[in-house]
Amino acid sequence: MAETVVAPWNLLQIAFIALYPASMSFTRMPSGMTLLALYVFLFLLCVPPIFIQLKLGNHEQRGIVGLLSTYFPIFKGVGIALLVHLFLTAVYMAPLISHYAMYAAISIIQEPYPWGLCGNAWNTPECVSKQQDDKLMTGLQQSKPDPLKEYASPESQFFNFEYLQLSDNIENISGFPVWQFNKTFENVGIPLTPIALVITWCLIFLFVAFGGRICGWILFILGPGFLSLMFVVMGYGYANLDRGPTNSFLQQLYSLNVEQLTDFSDTTDLITSWTEGFVLVMHSLPVWAAILPTMGKMTGTGKISRNISWLIVVLVYAVSLQLPQLTMAPYMGNLREMSPHMHYKNRSFSVPFTTMASAFHSLEIPHVYAFLFYLSLYIAGLMSLVLTVFTITDNVVDALTTSIDVFQNRRLCVNFFTAFVLMCLGVGAGILHTTKACWNVLHYTDGSVMYSQADFYYCNVVWIIPCHCVCAAEVWNCREGYNGYMGWLCHSHIICIFPLLFCFYNGYTTRIHWEEDTRYI
Description:
Layout: H1 2-5, H2 11-17, H3 32-60, H4 64-71, H5 76-109, H6 133-142, H7 154-163, H8 183-188, H9 193-208, H10 212-240, H11 243-253, H12 259-262, H13 268-284, H14 291-298, H15 303-320, H16 323-338, E1 342-344, H17 350-362, H18 367-403, H19 411-430, H20 438-475, H21 482-505, E2 518-520
Antiparallel strand pairs: 1-2
Helix pairs in contact: 2-10, 2-15, 3-13, 3-14, 3-15, 3-20, 3-21, 4-5, 5-9, 5-18, 5-19, 5-20, 7-17, 9-18, 9-19, 10-16, 10-18, 11-16, 16-17, 18-19, 20-21
Subcellular location: Membrane
Keywords: Disulfide bond, Membrane, Metal-binding, Sodium, Transmembrane, Transmembrane helix, Transport
InterPro entries: Na/ntran_symport, SNS_sf
């Protein structure tokens, strides 16, 4: 009966659905040694669990909870905890994704860009726009500058003080931000950030509520849409902006310091680079999450799908990881050439909201390309949220339809109701993230998710090795190559323990930073 209710995704759909981790590269641009570490971890440590989880989900037609209930019932709670972790991640990522949609609307509604100039009500004396850059630096060269004084860009102050209207602490919520920079938004008279959050969750609900087949086709449409928008923005940048700064930026981004691999007198930078590569894989690719078994379940029961889907997921991730930074390279390179005294970071959420916003204004990029850029970010993030919520919904529906007889012939209704409940919970839990205290709420949420994630990963290390071995023995009818693969699998899990412990001990999180990431040096 399970085969009659599963909505299969074909390999082409899987290829486009696997694009969703690209949203992480907009805020984490791996470069040099970090990029090398990322690919080493990807191909040596991540391939075995990706392969076995997709294959098990495909063979058993079950999600993570169903697999654990079948082979290791004592660890069923670990599967449920992983679903809870996915939901917590969706709760605090949905407001962030909604900001992309709002920035897309802002960039197309108002001309010129509202974030590019100082002298507004929200700016401080430290604000320095591009027009003041040369004058400021001339003055600093002729006088003795204050080493403790930092100058902020108008884009960062617009985002912090007008768009988010950040409060001092988590106790000072002070309601929702109401914008005054545009007559259209001002005439609305109501806060728009919670409205954007509700719309995002409504879209997630509509995409998930009607089952796996509909969800798969919607993701299949969103994937090419994301690629098309990215290529349009990329094409304009490479065709119309100066190639010299672009090439210099790419050369600096992809430069590899080989001395770190040979000189062990100081390994701090080497350890930091490899840790950052591992953290990026850990947070972007669902190796230790509950998503892969559900993706395997959705691919159908064909032999080709079983044996190729894992390769598609790995290769698409490896390629799409570079797409966002290649798209932003012309803009960020020319911006740094135009404002050499301004320090722009290439990580955290300051990249889309400060660095790219500065590039669009300073380089006088047509508003339609800024709109397409932020819309592509929103689509990529929405794909990630949809797949996350679909994984939770599918596992819950499987549990309800197999344990309660009356639900067995009403799977679509159960799926619809479950998606609706998750939407309501997501809006209710995420509404605080749209208030003026959003930075503080996100800080505590990010930390709690990080610690719960570490706990779940350690639990996975306990159950995943014996579970995978037992399940693989059931899946493979012959033992040819089984021992070698199991050795690779066990070694990958054991090796992963050490960077996980190191990241947990040193407090590596998703590093959501809202503070000033742009300053004069």
